[in-house]
Amino acid sequence: MDSTALIPLQYALDTFYFLICGALVMWMAAGFAMLESGLVRAKNTTEILTKNIVLYGLACVMYMLCGYALMYGGDAGGVLPNLGALIGDEHAAEVVAAGGEGAPYYSKRADFFFQVVFTATCMSIVSGAVAERMKLWAFLAFAVVMCAVIYPVEGYWAWGGGFLKTAGFKDFAGSGVVHLAGATAALAGVILLGARKGKYAANGQINAFPGANLPLATLGCFILWFGWFGFNGGSQLKMSTISDANAVASVFVNTNLAACGGLLAALVVARILFGKADLTMILNGALAGLVAITAEPATPTAVQASLIGAVAGVLVVFCILALDKLHLDDPVGAISVHGVSGIWGLLAVPLSNPAASFGVQLLGVASIFTWVFLASLLVWGLIKLIMGLRVSEEDEYEGVDIAECGMEAYPEFTRK
Questions:
Q1: Nearest by Cα to 312 from 269, 360, 358
Q2: CB-based contacts of 51: which residues, under 8 Å, 6+ apart?
Q3: Comparing C-alpha atoms, which of 327, 43, 48 is closest to residue 198?
Q4: 3-class SS letters over 302-342
Q5: Which of 141, 278, 391, 393 has the lowest CB atom count within 10 Å?
Q6: Residue 354 covered by a domain
């Protein structure tokens, strides 16, 4: 059969695969919502759910208005992206290349959909770290800037043809572009926001604030795990050839095994440190493994993927404890899971991919962290000056559900 006759079929298959993977990543929004609502206290559940569903809508609109054009409209090797055409502009190309010279194409709308759900994922990371004491509208104001400008700029550097891409930086599905960026923005917010009242005593004691619904948190972890197959699998961009189909299969296997490695490592470390099987550490260990393998899930062997995940599972436990020592209050462990594990994943890429350079990977880590931290610190600071970041002490004590949303998630347990 003439190879040109296969192009329409390849186009349809790759577009369909891209859309299905994008839908799986969109479902990760539900995972974040369930995980975070399970790990916060009952009086703050409605507000964290509101954050998660509204940020998804904001992310999609802002990325459509300018984020996508910033991320993929710049010149090769550049630092500052250009403001190009919107996704719906009549002058924009209807299809985009799905690989190298002469490769089949897929719909540009499918590309936009896949990219926009990544933007929402990045912003979802922030919501858990600033939970239980940030004003809802302050958070949403930051989400607008994060999704419209901060995330697309560093995304352009690494994926859109900017200086990191031309330097050889490797970040297959976003350990740095998505996860490290989200964690870094969260860190800047947590520094300015401060800890929850009563979390850290004057004598140095660290008080635990147990989550209200661990079954819900566990469900959220499983949903994220499931969605991650689209997150990493879709980043192969196509699967209509034998080599791409094999690569997708490797990505799925390695993604799953990295999560298992992180989970088991966190379980063992928690047992050694605490004498118990700490479920929250186990959940974060699985997620840490997923974050770490996201930088390069195609080239490791199955054993290597498991070990990469296991190292992330160890790191995340110690990082969560270290942040508490530093009085950086992160209710769900988002900074540790997505930040530290994201850095480890990026630096581990050369272990299995000979085309990657440790020096360039380190440059990518430094560039993403510096840009996102400084830009986020500026935006959080401006929001603090204009409207304030924290709810009042009274509202924090009563719970932000009533103060910010006017309703409770579990009224039968708290009201007569």
A1: 269
A2: 127, 136, 139, 140
A3: 327
A4: HHHHHHHHHHHHHHHHHHHHHHHHCCCCCCCCHHHHHHHHH
A5: 393
A6: yes
Q: What is the pLDDT of residues 330-385, one digit of tens each?
A: 999 999 999 999 999 999 999 999 999 999 999 999 999 999 999 999 999 999 99
Helix (H), strand (E) at residue 25: helix 7-39
Q: Is residue 268 part of a domain?
A: yes
**With b meaning 16 or more CB within 10 Å and e meaning fewer, what string describes 363-384?**
bbbebbbebbbebbbebbeebb
User: Which residues span the domain enclosing 306?
Assistant: 3-410
CATH of residue 326: 1.10.3430.10
Q: What is the pLDDT of residues 235-249, one digit of tens each?
A: 999 888 899 999 999
Q: What is the mean pLDDT of the chain?
A: 91
Instruction: Tell me if residue 85 falls in helix, strand or coil.
Output: coil
Does residue 313 contact residue 362 with C-beta atoms inside 8 Å? no
- Residue 149, SS3 per DSSP: helix
pLDDT digits (tens, 9 = 90+) for 110-153: 889 999 999 999 999 999 999 999 999 999 999 999 999 999 99
> In 26-104, which ranges are E strands?
95-97
Q: In angstroms, how far is CA 292 from the centroid of its own chain?
A: 11
Tokens at residue 258, please? 């990295």
pLDDT in tens, 50-81: 999 999 999 999 998 889 988 987 666 666 66
pTM over 0.90: yes
The span from the CA of 182 to the CA of 121, in Å, is 8
Q: Sort 241 into a burial class: Cβ within 10 Å, 0-12 / 13-18 / 19+.
A: middle
Residues 149 and 181: beta-carbon distance below 8 Å: no
